[in-house]
Amino acid sequence: MGANTFRRRAAVALVAATALLATTACGGGDAEEASDGPITLTVDVFGQFGYDELYKQYMADNPGVKIVERGTGSNLDEYSPKLTQWLAAGKGAGDVVAIEEGLLVEYKANPGNFVNLLDHGAADLKGNFLEWKWNAGLTADGKQLIGLGTDVGGMAMCYRKDLFAKAGLPTERDAVSKLWPTWQEYIAVGEKFTAAKTGASFLDGATNTFNTIVLQTAGNAQGYHYYDTSDNLVVDSNPAVRQAWDTTMDIIDSGLSGKYGSWSEEWVSAFKQAKFATIACPAWMTGVIEGNAGPAGKGQWDIADVPGDGGNWGGSFLAVPKQSKHQAEAIKLAKFLTSTEGQIGAFKAKGPLPSSPQALEDPAIADATNAYFSDAPVGKIFAAGAKSLKPVYMGPKNQAVRTEVENAVRTVDLGQRNPDQGWTDAVNNAKKAAAK
Amino acid sequence: MSVQLDARPPVAAVPPVRPDRTIRLSRIDTKWSPYLYIAPFFLLFAIFGAYPLAYTLWVSLHDWDLLGSNPAFVGAENYTRLLADPDFWHSVVNTLGIFVISTVPQLLAALWLANMLNRQLRARTGWRMAVLVPNVTSTAAVAIVFGVLFGREFGMINWLLDLVGLDGVDWKSNRVASWVAISTMVDWRWTGYNALIFLAAMQAIPRDLYESAAIDGANRARQFWSITVPLLRPTIIFAVIISTIGGLQLFTEPRLFHSGTNAIRGGPMRESQTVTMYMFENAFAPYYNFGYGSAVAWLLFLLIAVVAAVNVLIIRRLGGGAGKGDPR
């Protein structure tokens, strides 16, 4: 073999190797760090977790640690496939990752991807969390703790005072709460609002409202919605689901919906242009509203009780993937962020309601008001019901099934299907999704 | 080496050793060097093309949960299920629909544009560069802007329709309307690119052909159809195949056209969900069924091969009349 050929081969190999390196480097992360320098911990989140101040404090207390947050403000739909890919690839995930409760079930099915926090002294922390929140982080056999709870999604109804005034409705929050003890009365108020022709719809879109109602109805009944606690799909036979469906159909039928698809560009524009008057409002939604409606909406929004009785929507967990290069430091950070102090800090910043009973009782929460929402006593409104929250069990393909059912709601909302066709779609597509 | 030489009959030891060796080396060189020159491509293709292709095939024969371990071998089950899956065929129809609505006008417009740019224009280079500008814009930016333009309530297109007294269209949940909207952004992006490719080929056509045609009394249109188009045939075939591959793999535009929860469905009733989006929906969120998603990928590969072959046949047939005498 001539020297030239050898050189050529070497060049080829070099090109290939460089290309490979370039691709793997895209996986990101902080693999190439010097071992003795300060370490960087990456935290992956979606939406608004409100951790900025907490990071600053943690970095000041732990000089060897630098924290980078990724995914702030992103949609859960964008975040979860990315996280799954990182886990599947064994590379790319942050050192601490946020997991939403509806997706946690799927991650729990493959617990090997995560560090067992029970092996790292987490068992002592049990008393820091509402019991059901703690249990939700455990695998079915109770031997592995995947995630520490961050927040719970206590429910309320957010509304725009200016639009209510325009429609001749009361604007003061206690008076508004009294308008709608039940969803039927909420619909009646909506009809009155619509009749006043303010140019805005009564609510944003049917899917968010449906999800609120179904979680509330199911929580108050048998404690499960799409799957029963033995993981059988019960979309078509669970009266709670059907009842929520029927109420939602009444809402659509009365013309109350603005038909804005949740988290779409139009939805965000509708916030900015004050195109709807109410939105079902789990605690974490207050941060979303503030972000979407912007400074112009300050003082226009207020918070009243949710129609019906209580309910929980959402809430997340922090987990440490096994692929993390700095597991011990990551666990320490996750413990700090989910501590009573951490949860209070997050609540003050962006409104996610603590899952720690101590935090919920803390005066910092109980007396908290939210300036954006006309100084509404958010602590009182959300924390009051939080300790008695009735959680809803989520089965293995919860996310896929929920998607199908909500999608069926959306087709009726847009007038593409009538309620009967929509229900048939919901049931059939949910079955199909569960079987996939 | 010398051993071998000694074994030769010592009759004519006149030709020196050196030249003989050089000849052999140079023979090896002429024989193998071309392969070495093209080797880098094939090596990279093997790593980044062939291997993923084969691996995808392997995955598609398994019940492969993205996060799970020990995937079970299921043979062709993913394929049989997929062939009976109405949502898959729905996405195939969407893809072909968007492909036809976008590609046909796009290539015709590109041809026309190239013809215009091939004339004596003022600031010719400026114009030629200008048509490429949409192509340099990031697809994501284009898709987001168009997604907003085609909004149901706050979109500019519906506002314009309203100005002329027409009803607004729900571009995102009306099947044909969403195809048209997505085709618009594809065309906006790719027409100029194809025009430049056609233009380059047009400039290779000898001027004297046009001159003699002009002397024979052929007008511009006649020259275009009888000289330009037939001589562009190889380029047109190239453009058609490239557009086919791109068009059938359409993902970013329809994905970003829809926003909000579950945009990967391409509308509440999958109005504009393309095959690649369906693949993504199955392989990633919310199903994480990697095996099924891989089966979609393979069927898409076959679909592209079939459509590309059909296109080539059609183009051959169309240009056939004028190109028969062409020795090429």
Automatic annotation (TrEMBL), chain A:
- Give the start-end ranges of region Disordered: 414-436
- The keyword Signal is assigned to this record: yes
Gene3D superfamilies per the UniProt record, alphabetical: Periplasmic binding protein-like II
SUPFAM superfamilies named in the record: Periplasmic binding protein-like II
Alphabetically list the UniProt keywords.
Signal
The stretch of residues making up the signal peptide is: 1-27
Presence of the UniProt keyword Lyase in the record: no
Instruction: Please identify the protein, giving its name as recorded.
Output: Extracellular solute-binding protein
| Species this protein is from | Micromonospora endolithica
UniProtKB/TrEMBL annotation, chain B:
Q: Where does it primarily localize?
A: membrane
Q: Kindly give the InterPro entries that the UniProt entry links to this protein.
A: ABC_transporter_permease, MetI-like, MetI-like_sf
Among its keywords, does the record have Cell membrane? Answer: yes
Q: Name one GO cellular component term.
A: plasma membrane
Q: Which residues form the signal peptide?
A: none
Q: Which UniProt keywords apply?
A: Cell membrane, Membrane, Transmembrane, Transmembrane helix, Transport
Residue ranges of the TM segments? 35-58, 88-114, 126-150, 231-251, 295-315
Q: Name one Pfam family in it.
A: BPD_transp_1
Q: Please state where this protein is localized.
A: Cell membrane
Biological process annotations from GO: transmembrane transport
Among PANTHER family, the record links this protein to: ABC TRANSPORTER PERMEASE PROTEIN, INNER MEMBRANE ABC TRANSPORTER PERMEASE PROTEIN YCJO
| Similarity comment | Belongs to the binding-protein-dependent transport system permease family.
Protein name listed in UniProt: Sugar ABC transporter permease
